[in-house]
Amino acid sequence: MVAISPATAGLDDRLVSSIEQFLSGMHISDMNEFLVSWDSIDKDIVDSHDAGLLDSTTSSLAVGVNDCMSLLCDTFINLKMKTDGLVVDLGHDLDSLPRKVKHTHLSALSRSPSPSRAIRSPSPSSSKF
Prior knowledge:
Blueprint: H1 11-28, H2 32-50, H3 56-96, H4 99-110
Helix pairs in contact: 1-2, 1-3
């Protein structure tokens, strides 16, 4: 049986929770907390491995979580690249519209959403009671 050092205690839980930390960091656009945690996990895994204390289950979990993180990173990078490409394409599409069409479209967007006076009911102050 392999002895568990304080550094490896809870390592499985830390590995699993690192995925949630990653997604949370992406959500709030702040990866600092995740990076500190990930560096600590990485150091503890390497130290445990070097000391011969890393069991095969934790090692396999670390590889799996690492693969998951790589997939998430690749997915977010690809999503960002596709989004940037769509923004550029939309800009080109808008630039290629004739000026009159652009002006008409923008005028329609800036109109007041309230109904015209002709279709609104008269205000109470204008009624003849």
